[in-house]
Inverse folding.
DNA sequence: GGTGAAAGCGCG
DNA sequence: AAAGCGCGCTTTCACC
């Protein structure tokens, strides 16, 4: 699996790194590093020759590009039709190494604050005009730190040295190195996903909207169906002007009508009997659809038959991706029919069945839980083992175990899992205890939590002062429990994110190996790199969608499964834990 | 008039 | 007033 190898690649060839960045004269510079540390002389590249240079070197040698920020560096290359196989993203890797508890000598890295930049959206923030007079706020506040990271070649070389030293000092450099490679591969994939886009059927989307809301209304007008349903709510409440879109005011009206709710959220409304409730819930559904994914969203985010959200790799503390713009993390199931392959192509969709519990079973080496998930639905396996009575109970108990539920039905079921799967439960319980103590925990590959903030420490120390009140002590216990739930979930969610990165990184390489097909007119919307081969089109935590020529669909599906197997092997070796997929090949493509 | 918090709800 | 983790986005409303 060459993609994820670091120090040397698994295909037997010595890995070489090519570090690139801006040179002192404003052009580009490149320096190649051999595994033994030998450096080539710096090569200068004219501004407009960078894409050519990268393509040439990529073809000539097995390289890992080292650059400051994939989000900024790779998008222009993709636009120029250049794909790269591997990279090392200095910004993302810095974030991981800086906080990794297993790094023995982090001091040098932590002494390079300019690389400690938070993930940012692909669109650069608008800088204030340089000639604007400083406001009072500017004078009082700390100097504004640059939001980006240095993009110079010299800085990149220095930072790469620091990162290699830090990695070498880690307790398990192999694992942490794998994480750095996986994270960087994820950054490449995120850029490629935005470039390729999700094939999106605007007519189907419009049909879903019209069916629910009525025809598209004039700008600033409410759709017909919303007006009708709103009128029903008003009639049932006996009030001509119910403020449907303002929760605080709606709450007052509901209480005046005798509906004793404390909020206007749907789960609470659903618990009351009143003729106004059904239409009100209906109205809220419609309003949500309209504002979140209505015609305005369609106009803004879908162009040329492609939905192009922005992904933020490493944007979540656990290592999951975040998104910024386009709402890729929250496409409602209702709109899934709008994901539609181009003519002659199809969508291969897969999601992992119960990824997080399976990851937990593998981490903990829990044989009973592994057995419960072998060859079948994990929750069904838990029921078979006799721990709980129904699949629903198994799911509720498992989520409660991983999230730290203490009350309600979920909390009530957790002790049964503790008896049936002590190894798995010990692992999450220990992670929670460590977090509650103020300590740090790590994922399987070594992504660590940051230490608790000053506020948290302050609450804890206040509670141990001689004059601490009962209230102080309660607040400290609550904060400790809160952090414990976070660290409990961190180890599982974060390791699941690592598994998923390995899965899609492996799959990406397999897809790139497909023989190219003739380009169809529609497929060109994916851009020069993606219109001739199967390519990733969507990724969300534990599911993936591949856009593929129909002729390749079955082979792609096999690769998706094979990559899942490879990810399990890469992370957990010969652990018996299986990662079964729910996999579908879409039947309908767009009309010719 | 712009900003930020909170409510509410969509996703895993 | 969600119980129980992690997010983003839209809207309203209080405030400067």
């Amino acid at each position: 699996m060459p993609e994820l190898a670091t120090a040397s690649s698994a295909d037997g060839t010595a890995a070489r790194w090519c570090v690139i960045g801006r040179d002192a004269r404003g052009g580009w510079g490149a320096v190649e590093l051999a595994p033994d540390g030998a450096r080539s002389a710096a090569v200068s590249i004219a501004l407009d020759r960078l894409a050519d240079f990268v393509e040439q070197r990529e073809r000539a040698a097995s390289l890992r590009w080292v650059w400051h920020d994939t989000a900024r560096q790779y998008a222009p290359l993709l636009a120029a039709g250049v794909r790269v196989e591997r990279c090392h993203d200095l910004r993302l890797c810095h974030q991981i190494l800086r906080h990794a508890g297993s790094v023995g000598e982090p001091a040098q890295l932590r002494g390079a604050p300019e690389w400690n930049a938070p993930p940012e959206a692909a669109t650069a923030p608008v800088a204030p005009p340089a000639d604007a007079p400083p406001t009072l706020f500017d004078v009082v506040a700390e100097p504004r730190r640059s939001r980006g990271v240095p993009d110079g070649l010299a800085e990149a070389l220095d930072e790469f040295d620091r990162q290699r030293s830090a990695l070498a000092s880690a307790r398990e450099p192999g694992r942490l190195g794998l994480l750095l490679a996986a994270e960087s591969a994820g950054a490449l994939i995120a850029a490629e996903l935005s470039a390729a886009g999700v094939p999106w059927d605007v007519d189907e989307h419009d049909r879903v909207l019209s069916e629910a809301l009525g025809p598209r209304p004039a700008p600033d007008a409410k759709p017909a169906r919303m007006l009708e349903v709103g009128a029903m709510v008003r009639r049932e409440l006996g009030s001509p002007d119910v403020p449907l879109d303002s929760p605080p005011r709606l709450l007052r009206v509901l209480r005046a009508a005798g509906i004793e709710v404390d909020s206007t959220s749907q789960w609470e409304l659903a618990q009351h009997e009143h003729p106004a409730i059904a239409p009100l819930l209906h109205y809220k559904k419609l309003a949500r659809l309209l504002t979140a994914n209505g015609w305005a969203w369609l106009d803004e985010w879908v162009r040329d038959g492609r939905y192009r959200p922005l992904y933020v790799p490493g944007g979540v503390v656990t290592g999951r991706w975040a998104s910024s713009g386009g709402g890729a993390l929250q496409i409602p199931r209702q709109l899934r029919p709008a994901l539609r392959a181009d003519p002659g192509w199809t969508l291969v969709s897969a999601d992992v069945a119960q990824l997080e519990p399976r990851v937990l079973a593998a981490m903990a080496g829990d044989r009973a839980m592994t057995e419960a998930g072998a060859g079948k639905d994990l929750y069904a396996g838990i029921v078979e083992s006799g721990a709980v009575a129904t699949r629903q109970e198994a799911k509720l108990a498992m989520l409660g175990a991983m999230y730290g539920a203490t009350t309600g039905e979920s909390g009530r079921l957790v002790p049964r899992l503790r008896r049936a799967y002590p190894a798995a439960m010990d692992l999450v319980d220990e992670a929670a205890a460590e977090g509650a103590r103020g300590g740090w925990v790590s994922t399987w590959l070594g992504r660590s939590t940051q230490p608790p903030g000053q506020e948290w420490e302050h609450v804890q120390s206040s509670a141990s002062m001689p004059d601490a009140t009962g209230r102080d002590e309660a607040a400290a216990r609550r904060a400790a429990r809160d952090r414990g739930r976070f660290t409990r979930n961190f180890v599982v969610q974060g390791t699941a994110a690592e598994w998923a990165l390995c899965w899609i990184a492996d799959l990406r390489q397999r897809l790139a190996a497909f023989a190219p097909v003739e380009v169809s007119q529609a497929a060109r919307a994916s851009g020069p790199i993606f219109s001739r081969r199967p390519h990733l089109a969507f990724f969300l935590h534990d599911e993936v969608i591949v856009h593929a020529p129909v002729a390749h669909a079955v082979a792609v599906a096999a690769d998706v499964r094979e990559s899942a197997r490879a990810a399990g092997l890469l992370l957990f070796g010969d652990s018996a834990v299986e990662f079964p997929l729910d996999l579908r090949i879409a039947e309908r493509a767009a009309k010719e």
